[in-house]
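>> received
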Amino acid sequence: MLFQDISSDDSNAVILAVEKILQHASQLKFFPTVRPWSLCELGADEADFEWLLAWAREWNYRDADRWTNGHQLFVTEINGHEISSFQAVGTLLLLFCAECVRREGREDSIWPAVRADAEGKGRFKRCECILWNDGSAPRGRFYRALREAAYFLGVRHCFRGEKEQEYIGTLRLQYGFSFDGAKWLPEWLCGYKWPRPVQQLTRDPDLASESFQKLWEAFHALRDGNIAQSQWLTQAANSPWILPQWAQHLAGTAILRRNLRSVENTRVGAQDKTISATEIERLDAQQTSQNDGFLSEPRLGFNAGEAFFVVQAQNWWAPDDASWLSPDTDILDFYVGQQKLGHFRRLERGGRIFAPFQATWEVPVSASSLIARLFSQNTPVATQKLTFWEASDGFGWWNISSGKRCDVWNQVPRSHQEYALIVEEGLEFCPAPKFGRAMENKHYFCLMPTGGNQPRFLMRANRFGHPFTKKPQRGPKISRFLSLKPTR
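>> returned
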């Protein structure tokens, strides 16, 4: 037990707990180190988890504000290491989040399990308002603490920018998979719905874990009948990635549905199947203009203040005359560019309908389009191009409530609606946007405020010959809200 000598309501609980964590990590040769590690490898037990829950319940508003206030940042020394207030409390919060989600969370949603227990009771009763937004996402100070702690500890992480998915990915790398997600073990071992953290922990040259690789190989050996269940339980008992009370259940789950056909080799060391650039160029030349309808119209979405396009995969009907379609064609590989994102599965033998395994994913707003493809055993069978916004027009706008893209020339904004815009750099707005940021492709993303009797987007171009000035014949609707004039 890590925290057996510490009172959860001690005013110095954060410092004392982090001191124990660093001391134990040093004994295990994890900290400080150049090789990334995961917090589950500390071996926190049920008593530690109960201590973390008690600490969160008793953590008061004043202490939470003091430790997470960016304007009152302070530095202390723990075990000979200088550590900031964000790094210290972030270490405890990162461990708290990982232990909550691996036990009580879901694979597709982590923050609800961090914020509240299974009965919906808040875990941070005395300081919830300072750590959480009105929705289910943490506040910026919570995110910052997690990020700085990950860098300080040297644990495995996915941070490249400030995206919500990077925090989720970093948390999931701390425990591999949750107890809830383990119900999919038979599918994962056969290559279906294979979660990203498992791929990273088994194959990524920078993030792979030797202990997780041994566990994953043991799962395969158990499922293939190469080792007895008692042997697997002995190996699992020494793995930090499985809690002791899970072992018997996981051993039974891993051998279920043995009739599943393997669609991808998920063993350690196996290489991901890739499509050559030459094959992609040939497919694009033949089918880029074809719209096969396996993706629906994209919509604009938001998560923790970050905007993205939501792409939805849908059931697809193979053509009647498809020469590649045979009774044994059960799986189609789904690619965007050279990256495989998942599979489509045949709904019934001899039928023409294929359904996606993963229904939705997110695309950055800086992307103006994407090309998606379906392959049957490396043979291209369908291509679809999605256009999010026309970069040549220099302007696009979306209704935030519905996420739908608006027709620039034939729709007018309503005073009670809020809109998001993407425009070229150098254009001025009236009224001023309430939020905005530059994108990599010389465009600007912003949110326009609601209100006003006659909503107008007055935009002044910094040059003549803007695309909008070439289309005055489009009718009176566009002139009601869009006015482009050269800057004098």
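>> Residues 181-254 form one domain.
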